[in-house]
Amino acid sequence: MQGRGRQTLRAVLKIDENYWEAKTTNATYRVWVGDLPGQLTIHREDEGTERHWYDLQGIKNFFFGRDSIAVEIFPKHKDLVDGQNQTHLWKIPSENHHLLPNLKHYGGA
């Protein structure tokens, strides 16, 4: 892998039109490519609760590209929909990257 970080993503297999299986060194995830542009829904196939940051980074890179930025949103409590053990990643359009904090300023790469 180029750059920083550990590569944990080992294989990505298409299951059907919207569902994919992402195998990492830590777990197997189901990835649903949402109807909305730039949306991924991710959950562990074994229903485990632990999520590995490098796993999600690898999934983000595969679906959105290495130079993309994606976020996970923690809503207001009143807007929380807690139906399943899953996470959502949302791609930030490149024209909006300037609105985000400069992570390099905080000791990043």
Can you walk me through this structure?
The protein is mostly beta strands and 109 residues long. It has one domain: Sandwich (Immunoglobulin-like), CATH 2.60.40. It contains 1 helix and 6 strands; from the N terminus they run E-E-E-E-H-E-E. The protein has a 6-stranded antiparallel beta sheet with strand order 1-2-3-4-6-5, covered by helices on one side. The model has no long low-confidence stretch (mean pLDDT 87).
Notable features of this structure?
Immunoglobulin-like, 11% helix, six-stranded antiparallel beta sheet, mainly beta, 109 residues, 6 strands
User: Taking all residues together, what is the mean pLDDT?
Assistant: 87
Which percent band covers the strand fraction?
25-35%
Count of domain modules = 1
- Total E-strand runs: 6
Radius of gyration: 15 Å
| Low-pLDDT segments, ≥5 res | none
Strand order of the main beta sheet, please? Answer: 1-2-3-4-6-5
Structural class: mainly beta
Task: Note the run of SSEs as H and E.
Answer: EEEEHEE
Overall geometry: globular
Instruction: Give the proportion of residues in helices.
Output: 10-25%
